[in-house]
Amino acid sequence: MLDWEALEQRCMSCNQCGLCSTRHHVVFGVGPRNAQIMFIGEGPGEQEDLKGEPFVGPAGQFLDDMLSIIDLSRHNCYIANIVKCRPPRNRDPKEEEQDACIAYLRNQVALLRPKIIICLGRIAAKRILDPNFRITREHGTWVERKGVWMTAIYHPSALLRDISKRPETFDDLLSIRQKIRELGIAVMPPGL
Ligand code: SF4
Q1: HSE, side-chain direction, 13 A CA sphere, residue 35
Q2: pTM given for the model
Q3: What is residue 12's predicted lDDT score, i.e. its pLDDT?
Q4: Ligand 1: does its nearest atom lie under 6 Å from the Cβ of 85?
Q5: For the chain, which domains are there?
Q6: 89 neighbors 45 (Cβ within 8 angstroms)
Q7: Which of 72, 107, 136, 172 is least enclosed by beta carbons within 10 angstroms?
């Protein structure tokens, strides 16, 4: 296992899959490296690729709004993706691209040792929770593995496209807040 600096350095110059040829920036991850709550998306989009940061476009703004509902923010969560380079035209990352990249995420999780992992969307849920995960039926359900509580919610991009999913996601966010309280994780409201 590499430490944070070595891991980031290796990731930033990675060419282990074809996504390296079309990226502008590697999007390693963002947030405090002692956060107890981790969000995992599928991969960078256009804005993220241009800026080198996860969730900075409209979906990122929406994610920030979602976090603020339950007193979370980028100051108390770590946010990363399954693949660190943008799939062209925002297609789903291929299995082989995920396979090539997943060791970086595993190393991030091992360093962070979060108490809660929240998958954002179908791709992350299938990779992290269960290959047969059905996001429409199973979002908001919890599973505990080796002391880490895990769940999945709709991806912010899906919530921007389909507002009918938002009430269910609001319930999922409340469930996350409840889990944070149950586990005694201290989170300061943004701005304090
Ligand atoms: S997506 Fe991951 S494995 Fe592929 S080039 Fe980027 S950092 Fe390397």
Answers
A1: 23
A2: 0.96
A3: 98
A4: yes
A5: 4-181 (3.40.470.10)
A6: no
A7: 136
